[in-house]
Design brief:
Length: 349
Amino acid sequence: MLLPLLVAMLSFVFATMLADQWWRRRRPYQLVWAVGMVFYGIAALTEVLGSAGTWDTVLYRAWYLTGAIWVAAWLGLGTVLLLGKTRFGYAFALTVFLAGLFTLLTQRARDYPDAGIAPWLYFGIAALVALAVAVLNYFADDRWPRLVAITLALGTLASLVLMAAAPLPGQGYSITEATGIPNAEPLPGYIRLLTPFFNITGALSLVFGAIFSTYMFMPKRRLLHYSLDPNQKGDEFLFNLAISIVAFPVNLAVSLPGALRALVAGQLHSRVPATILIAIGGLVPSVTSGLSRFGETRVFDVGLLIGVLFLFAGFLVSIEVFHDLRVPFTGVTLWHRAPEPAEPLTGGR
């Protein structure tokens, strides 16, 4: 009970700090990350209450919705909004397509008898969103993050309705005896398949966003050149898009020595370490949470604690998120840092 209680407390404190930063600066990603951290805290709090002997169907449903479906997705949306004016949309399109594909493959592997058409429906939605995001990115339309946000909001509402209506046999929940942590056994397949759909999209958005943002803000060497300029001919664009799949990791690898030198010299932009920490913080609990839904619950609480600590560290390091540190919703500033030099967020080459 101690670990989830600590996670819940840290999550709610953190969410309050993020909400305060949003209230002052009105950055959408700050608000979205605050929502994600509220879900993080609720997931941990349900476990605290359940461990005290109060597990019931309502608490169990809340535990699954927040921890297994919503947290990673909303944290990933924050990264999408942070990088919304860049070419990150191509990476996100790949992310959501892979999430839909993995959801379909999960059904093939697990064969949930009550999944119905859900696997194909989720895959179809993922494919449509991926296509729309890629097209908007091609035309340099900055509205693609808004499309992603609307889709996630509708998906969150749909998952809430589906969960509320889902029949749960027996006592309405299931606990792993060895650890006292719930598992997903009573849930119908169409609910359980929401986990890879939401979780993979969110977790990969965090990881790909960290890699992309790191590359944008580190000293770069471009060994392989490419261009994602939408004004070039269609066949040239497709050729460059294919080349970028190889060129991006190659250029990233050859740029790492220069980035390490900049880090040692204290000249590396704060977004580089910040996004890496945030990605780790979002990925670890996504993995341990996903494992718990398949019966492996021993590392669940540890994953939550590691995740919230890395997220906290990443957000504090990032000047985009925390320009200063103060008592939330007051004028009392505890610490203030000077702004870093502005750098372009393009990512087209």
